[in-house]
Target: Glutamate--tRNA ligase
Amino acid sequence: MTDEKESFNKGIAVRFAPSPTGPFHIGSVRTALYNFLFARKNGGKFLLRIEDTDKERSTKEFEENIFDSLKWLGLDWDDKDHLLRQSERTAVYTQKIHELIEKGAAYISKESEGKNKEVIRFKNPGGKIKFQDLIRGEVEMDVSDLEDFIIARNINEPVYHLTVVVDDMESEITHIIRGEDHISNTPRHILILEALGGSRPIYAHLPLVLAPDRSKLSKRKHGESVSLNFYKNAGYLPEAIINFLAMVGWNPGTDQEIFTINELIKDFDIKKVQKKGGIFNIEKLDWLNREHILKQSKNLQIERLKGEILKTKFKDYEKVGDPEFLDKFLVIILDRIHRWGEVSEILEAGEFDHLFIDKPELNKEIIHWKKSTPEKARENLEKVVQIFNEEKTLEIIWTKIEKLAEERGKGDVLWPLRYALSGREKSPDPFTLIKIKGVKASISSILSAIEKLS
Ligand code: GLU
Model:
């Protein structure tokens, strides 16, 4: 067995090799992440390769989506000028197929089925193939059943098993970190690699990312929620997605749950990746996302908040440009959300209309507290207006309102006040509302409530 330390010294290179045949799958994102972490931790290269041999299903749009997503996530890859795109490398593969045929390791086979089809088959020596896997330990598989497997549909149309080996050799990949769904392909790759005279990389087959019911995360069953775009559009932060995916299938062996990418690079250990499938638990993602939102700088938070408001019916309201309002609204909203996308959802649902609309619509029947009377509510609101008119600072105004509430009953004073300010049965407390609305708008809301009751 190759000593791992030894191979580290010869210059680590890993690759992430997605096929651009659909929206970037969340399981592939994790494969990219583990490759990235492993490379950065060991001072190696993290290469990207586009496996677009399936011409019908591969598109430029999906390819662009992979580039954009990796950049958005901060998983920047190396050697950008030497990106391998398999659709552009047919000549290289054809030459390797010839080489294999010349060596007697492969042959052209006339297929009895189909019209005079000639495929290229690898001459399978049979027997057992053993390899070391960083996660699963020693793996042994019998290749006899594979018979002489196909490596190209014709001399110019190689299949994945050939292209992957040729490219990994050319890029001098030292560690192949990929999904467990490829483990059954590995013996074939080893056979081809050895026939081409390549040296064997170290393998690490990652357990799958599973849904909470332990089923495979598939588009058919789980819809858009299997793609990264879904989370990006819902307002999750890239750093939270990274933190979350790192821990689907790996943990540092300590209590630490919140990690920055640099902390992950420091602590990540591919050997601690578990063998069984990792669960994609959205509650955990929500929790982590909230933690990362709270870690963002205030400037970034304000920018994000503003961006969210601009997506809503309040986009043209003056308040969006008022730094003081945004500061105060931020405090309230941070108490509520797990992801930024929730802000526009909450605003569209009308829950914070009162903060944007100075005079909310009021329902006369509920201005007074249910255990009291409209008359009392009116009297108390008039007293509140008086306090506003007599005092200058918010602190004193509030102290006096509190005193009034003590004397005349909390429900009798604070319910009508809160409702007058918000127009809602549930809202933040009246003091918070006054702080956000400001004195002028607060007085005018209270006066409209009094008018309604008269
Ligand atoms: N193109 C393959 C996939 O998207 C990955 C192949 C590999 O990593 O060897 O599943």
Q: What stands out?
A: The CA atoms of residues 12 and 44 lie 4 Å apart. Confidence is low (pLDDT under 50) at residues 1-9. Residues 17-19, 51, 164, 178, 182 surround glutamic acid (CB under 6 Å).
